[in-house]
Amino acid sequence: MDCIRIAEWNANGLIQHIQEIEMFLRDQKIDVCLISETHFTKETYIKIRGYLVYHTVHPSNKARGGTAVIVKNELKHHEETNYQTEAIQATSIKVQNKYKQYMITAVYCPPRYILKKEDFVKLFQTQGEYYIIGGDFNAKHWGSRIIINKGKELYKAGAECKCEFHSTRKPTYWPTDQNKIPDLIDFFVTKGVSNNYIQVEDCPDLASDHSSVILTVSNAVIKRQIPLTLTNRKTNWLGFRAELEKKITLKVPLKTPEQLEEVNKFNTDIQQAAWNNTPMIQRRNMGYNYPKEIRDMVNMKRRARKKWQHTRSPEDKTVLNRTGNELKRLIKEMKHATLNKFLSELTADKNTDYSLWKMTKGIKRPKMQIPPVRKEDGEWAKSNKEKADLFAEHLFKTFQPLPRLTNKETIPQIKKKDRRQIKFVTMKELTNEIKIT
Fold first, then answer.
1. Domain named Endonuclease/exonuclease/phosphatase: which ranges (predicted)?
2. Contacts for 220 with CB less than 8 Å, ≥ 6 apart
3. What is the mean pLDDT of each run of 10 residues along the chain (437 residues)?
4. Whole-angstrom Cα distance, residue 414 to residue 424?
5. Phi, psi of 359 (to 5 degrees)
6. Span 3-218: which CATH code?
7. Quick one: three-class SS letters along 255-316?
């Protein structure tokens, strides 16, 4: 399997969404689905064709809280010990991919409980060395409108356990109360999985007061698409101006519907001129160009592993461990040298395009929330298409032609001979007239 698609969703009661979740799993080709707030009890049982379901109930065995993991039958995995407290419920499975095993966990943290850093650290320590945790943490921090104490404590725990946080930076919680504003409280926490192999996307297919988030883990580096822009920092503005001067004619009157079509041509000419004078910026390849010494050591380690797997002797195991440690040391030294060289070349002047300030800005820049937009009926526009349609409708209603001043088709023109000469007045006469009035 080249990649695993993992979805997380707060169902707010899974039983009522069984048919919906079945269609979602097949349409989105989901391998593992992490569910929060299942509202299951020990007597609850569900079956989804082609999938296995593992779940953890609330300690009180009442229909509230709880988590579940829905996993494909064909995915090699096994269930792990569940995490079950009043403040945190979690369901875990261990999955074997092409290179290593890692834990995949669904988590739910009820909002009423105050959790400290130690509580989250305790959860992370049960997950092993490599894991992916997804669910409703009710901890606002990453891309949320505000930062609460639970979010700060989770951030401290993640920093201590060397975790990474992944979200879409878009709201995932959509309250039914229109006075409440949507926010982001569902996201993923990972450890031991490089960001280059992860892609996160939102999906509004499932209906509850939460939207789902899908995380794709690939065995190969995922190349993210560069967002399309009309211009960038390398745009040739002189060429842009010269091209527009040749194409655009500003002497066309805009009085008839046919003449209004010139507006579309005007917009098209601007876009085309911008594209023609804007080169594509290629992203830098951040991968390491490993030297021959390291590549030779990798081949040596492969031969040592193959020999040990064949003989299973302690001596060959010692050689394999020694080779592996030497390879780690060489890679670590190379990464340190590469980083030191990169940092030493950063400057604050124009010669390197102000690389120092750009790097500092990238580190300090906070993750901004992408807010939702409310429709006229009070609902929220969640997807990009809904937002675009809403803006288009608003602009269409706003920019309407002015009403005619008269019902007649044409306004009679005053003949030149009927125009009367305006008599000049002095400032004193004007002042006196104003006072009288």
1. 9-210
2. 2, 197
3. 86 88 87 94 88 92 92 88 91 82 92 92 92 92 79 92 89 80 89 86 81 84 63 88 85 76 84 89 56 81 77 84 85 81 83 78 64 78 81 88 64 59 81 79
4. 22
5. -65, -40
6. 3.60.10.10
7. CCHHHHHHHHHHHHHHHHHHHHCCCCCCCCCCCCCCCHHHHHHHHHHHHHHHHHHHHCCHHH
